């Protein structure tokens, strides 16, 4: 499989501008490409698709890449089939997945990525690249047709993964607790991506990028920490 995928935890880290912390990896992903199709469906109505796309366009034009919003196309399916590269931004994962189903974009996106079309996601856009959206942090503000996602990779993601704060008096569930709850009913691995971290999938190889470790959860096992140079290809072999 000729996958070329970049799954980013967040679009903005503390002290950086939009996508700046991932600039090097984005340029590597899109090498040789001049056009990008942006899917803004994750944004609730408080931010229009037009305004969201304008923000993305401003960022990519600095890198010599033109951006078209899928909502600007008369035929969204045709737009995906003709795209040089695809970017799905962050927002609400439930809303995003519902819109992908409603616009019949699940299969076209799967087919394009299998053919090697670069795919980039941030936050919700990374969530929908996984097997399901069952490990998103978002509120279910709408109900999608299914929780099954694009399944570009055979595991789930938890972007914006947070560790418990030392000395915190918060008594609610931690992210780790919620992922363990997920694993009482689901078997696929879950990757907790901390802010500033990202996964690059190239064919049958997966690499953790960024300066932080990622926390990997396997059903029935203790969570494991992996550094950027560690071998994590077993994630692509999950059933």
From TrEMBL:
It is an enzyme of class 3 (hydrolase). It comes from the Bacteria. Transmembrane segments: none annotated. InterPro entries: Class_I_gatase-like, Peptidase_S51. One of its GO terms (molecular function) is dipeptidase activity. Belongs to the peptidase S51 family. This is Dipeptidase PepE. It comes from Pontibacter silvestris.
């Amino acid at each position: 499989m000729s996958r070329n995928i970049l799954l980013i935890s967040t679009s903005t880290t503390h002290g950086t501008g939009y996508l700046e912390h991932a600039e090097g990896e984005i340029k590597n992903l899109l090498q040789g490409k001049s056009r990008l199709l942006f899917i803004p469906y994750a944004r609730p109505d408080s931010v229009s698709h037009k305004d969201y796309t304008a923000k993305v366009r401003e960022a990519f034009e600095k890198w010599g890449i033109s951006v078209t919003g899928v909502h600007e196309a008369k035929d969204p399916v045709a737009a995906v089939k003709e795209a040089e590269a695809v970017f799905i931004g962050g927002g609400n994962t439930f809303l995003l997945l519902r819109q992908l189903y409603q616009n019949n974009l699940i299969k076209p996106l799967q087919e394009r990525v299998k053919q090697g079309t670069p795919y980039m996601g941030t936050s919700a856009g990374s969530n929908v690249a996984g097997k399901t959206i069952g490990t998103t942090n978002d509120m279910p503000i709408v109900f999608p047709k299914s929780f099954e996602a694009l399944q570009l990779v055979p595991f789930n993601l938890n972007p914006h993964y947070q560790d418990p704060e030392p000395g915190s008096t918060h008594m609610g569930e931690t992210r780790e607790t919620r992922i363990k709850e997920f694993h009482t009913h689901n078997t696929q691995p879950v990757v907790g991506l901390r802010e500033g971290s990202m996964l690059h999938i190239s064919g049958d190889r997966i690499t953790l990028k960024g300066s932080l470790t990622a926390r990997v959860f396997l059903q029935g096992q203790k969570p494991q920490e992996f550094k950027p140079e560690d071998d994590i290809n077993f994630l692509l072999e999950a059933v």
